[in-house]
Amino acid sequence: MFFDASILFQIAGIGIIVALIHTILKQMGKEEIAQFATLIGFIIVLIIVINGLSDLFQQIKSVFLF
């Protein structure tokens, strides 16, 4: 089974970018927008993880169903 490490780097990159955006917006006094940006980042990472799990389950399904 091949593990693609680029997914980890994508998630880490998104986390760093969202953290920077959150910090900048919070310093500007726009805490509501900062929370919204964090929520959007979380949703993007969640979609990436769900796609990865979907691929994993498809591979498992193909192994056991021939």
From TrEMBL:
Signal peptide region: none
Superkingdom of origin organism: Bacteria
Membrane spanning residue stretches: 6-25, 37-57
Keywords for this protein: Membrane, Transmembrane, Transmembrane helix
The protein, known as: Stage III sporulation protein AC
